[in-house]
Amino acid sequence: MENLPAVLTSLLISGLRYPVIASALGAVWLAGRIVYALGYTDPNMADGKGRSRGAFMWLGQLGLFLLTGFTGVKMVMGQ
Hints:
Blueprint: H1 4-17, H2 19-40, H3 57-77
Helix pairs in contact: 1-2, 1-3, 2-3
C-alpha cells in the first residue's frame, strides 16, 4: 500500500487532461496489484514467490507518473 497515495495522486492529475489513458493505466496498475496479491497468498508458492506475476503493475505506475509529468508541463506552458 506504500504506492497507493502516489498512484492515486498521479491518476487524479493525469486524468484531468487525459481521462481515458489515465483510467487505462490505472486499470493496468490495479490488475497488477490483484495478481500480485493472489500470487503472494498462493499456497503452492513458498515464501510468496508468486508475487512476481503481478510485476506488470509497474508499467501502469510508470505510465501514470510519465503522464502526470506530461500533464504538468502542458499546464505550465498553457496548452
